[in-house]
Amino acid sequence: MKKLALSVAVAAIAATSVQAKTVYEDDQMSLKLTGEYAFEVVRDTDEDDSVNYKTDNMDLEIHADYNLENGITVFGEMLFEFAGYTEKNDGSYDPLADHWVGFKKGGLEVRYGEQDYAVDDFGIDEQKDADRPERKNDVLGEDDADAKSAEVLVVEYSADSYYLAASVDLPEKSSNVDDLADETDFSFYGEVELGDFTVGAVLGIQDQDGEDGDDAMTSYGASVEYKGIDDLKLGAMIVYNSESEDMAFDTSVEYDISSKFDIAAGVGMYLPEADGEDEITYYYANVDYDFHKDVDGYAEVYGNSDDDQQLGLVIGISLDF
């Protein structure tokens, strides 16, 4: 799926740690760093947009592990994203994107802090870095929506052939600020390998503040990926919101021409239920070449069927460490 490799390690923090560089280590503690720099030439799909040059994905992750004698590992992580800071001059941008603490033992991992919901693991998208709408999020909801707290609890369990995750966005309340009682989100995600197929399902329940008579927003999703053909990966997913009755689906294909060079493409539709909103078809195609295991060049074109649109493009190079 989007970022999971079930047979190795599925938790996001574990995947990060595998790629990170250890800068300090003793018998019980390790400190690791990982990051990315990228430079891109971009033209978005709005017909009034012209070519833009920008830094992107200027990320830095700091991860600390403490191994206790009972076999439990306690860890903490901070993720900084500086690309947005380079594009803002008003001093209001906070580069600290995510941060959490947690523990893990065997296949179980628990994290608490500002982080993604379990629903964010869901998806089959093969796009690179195109600035196009995330129709999946339009239906399922977003973890960075206004009035959401930064207090997210995530519980994950991974085994050789399956992965389960649940998250809750805990509500914030204040006696000093009347409107600070924000919404709560519950998300559940599961993924299982069945031979050459990987099947995923997601459930999200949002808007749980109970104010103004609002009903809960419940959303569902299902996905499948097939890897039974050498060097080829096929994917499809569908999402549905029971409150708005909006729906979206995506298909994707990726082919590895060589160990360093791959191509991918995808097409999908957003099907809003509300009157006055048009159905939108969106698409993308890209190429990716690994100059080095930590140096990546890519190019992508993308577009949609909305009015007043042009073909978007992005050409970039990324350096990881």
UniProtKB/TrEMBL annotation:
Residues 122-143 are annotated as: Disordered. It is found in: Cell outer membrane. SUPFAM superfamilies: Porins. One of its GO terms (molecular function) is porin activity. Residues 125-139 have a biased composition (Basic and acidic residues). Residues 1-20 form the signal peptide. The keyword Membrane applies. Its main location: membrane. Coiled coil: none annotated. One of its GO terms (cellular component) is cell outer membrane. It is a multi-pass membrane protein. The lineage of its organism: Bacteria, Pseudomonadati, Pseudomonadota, Gammaproteobacteria, Oceanospirillales. InterPro entries: Gram-neg_bact_OMP (IPR050298), Gram_neg_porin_domain (IPR033900), Porin_dom_sf (IPR023614). Keywords: Membrane, Signal. This is Putative porin. Gene3D superfamilies: Porin.
